[in-house]
Design goal:
By secondary structure, the chain is mainly beta. It has one domain: 60s Ribosomal Protein L30, Chain: A, CATH 3.30.1330. The protein is built from 1 helix and 9 strands. Strands 1, 2, 3, 4, 5, 6 and 7 form a 7-stranded antiparallel beta sheet that branches. Strands 8-9 form a two-stranded antiparallel sheet. The longest helix is centred in the first third of the chain and has 11 residues. The termini are far apart.
Length: about 140
């Protein structure tokens, strides 16, 4: 994985983050977030995965139901944010829509994914940081503005 600062103006920074075959996406985005002290970021990406773990939040159990997929898929859309949790730790939250070999789509919360052959991420960090607070009703850390 490589990252490069593309632009910086008025406290806002834009990065290109390029993942290579075999790179794991969520841990890589966490590494970039920690390296550049990101905390109010949004990102989008396109590329492809060799395998992925998607999840669906089950409201009745307040838990993520995981769905591992072990096949080559196109990343049609990957979007998410990076914020701070209640303890100041960086948190990557991402959703993805994937295209399969037969042009069907799969999507959900991105838990883990390995790139093949590339994933091209454009990430913008704003000078105002996003903070997640634990929400007892949902059991999730939700962004508070």
């Amino acid at each position: 994985m490589q990252s490069k600062l593309l632009n910086e103006a008025h406290g806002q920074r834009t990065f290109a983050v390029i993942f290579e075959s075999g790179d794991e996406v969520i841990s890589g985005l966490n590494d970039v977030a920690n390296e550049h002290e990101l905390a109010g970021s949004q990102f989008t990406a396109i590329g492809a995965f060799s395998d992925v773990v998607l999840a669906y939040f089950d409201w009745s159990t307040r838990e993520y139901q995981k769905f591992p997929l072990r096949e080559q898929m196109e990343v049609l859309t990957l979007a998410g944010d990076i914020s701070l949790d209640d303890h100041g730790k960086r948190k990557v939250h991402a959703h993805v829509v994937l295209g399969t070999r037969d042009c069907r789509t799969r999507g959900g919360h991105l838990m883990e994914a390995h790139v093949r052959p590339t994933l091209e991420v454009i990430l913008t960090d704003s000078p105002k940081h996003l903070q997640r607070k634990f929400d007892a009703d949902s059991g999730l850390g939700l962004i508070q503005v």
